[in-house]
Amino acid sequence: MQLQDKQFMQAALQQAAKARDADEVPIGAVVVHQGEIVGEGYNQSRSLNDPTAHAEVLALRQAASKLGSYRLTHVSLYVTVEPCLMCSGAVLEARIGRLVFGAREPKTGAVISTAETLMSPRCQHHVAVTEGVLRVECAELMQSFFRSKR
Q: What does the DSSP 8-state code read for residue 34?
């Protein structure tokens, strides 16, 4: 694991904390281009009343706007939790170069857990995937959030 990966995952965890503080599922994401964060987001589906307002989608929108292109081939997306099917689709559509995520999501994760959407031989674009960066911290944030709801 690269030191830089840990630093950017820490930034994603800060975004996830914003989601938790807003009583949203605590998932955060940052988009990195040439060592600089160009997009960030946290889950806001409830507060925005928007089922697509996941951390990844919001971060990708911001990055695309800042970089002036919807094709984000030279960026890395850091996410605290394995992306769902919708977000995996967004990663493919944006042509992300690299996805880094912290914890697996056994119920809805669509990168490894329930489906291998980014690794399908049918996909025209292939994404480099790194998992497990700050896994314990990412998983604990989710687990503590849902424990507090029970």
A: T
Q: What is the pLDDT of residue 3?
A: 80
Per-residue confidence (pLDDT) for residue 1, from 0 to 100 = 57
Of 92, 77, 86, 97, nearest to 15 by C-alpha is 77
pLDDT in tens, 91-132: 999 999 999 999 999 999 999 999 988 888 888 888 999 999
**100, amino acid identity:** V
96: DSSP letter:
-
CA distance linking residue 36 with residue 30, whole number of Å: 10
pTM of the model: 0.95
The rounded distance, in Å, linking the Cα atoms of 46 and 63 is: 22
Q: Are 74 and 96 in contact (CB under 8 A)?
A: no
Q: How far apart are CA 139 and CA 143, in angstroms?
A: 6
Rounded to whole angstroms, the Cα distance separating 18 from 41 reads 9
Contact indicator for 104, 134 with CB cutoff of 8 Å: no
Which residues belong to the active site? 56
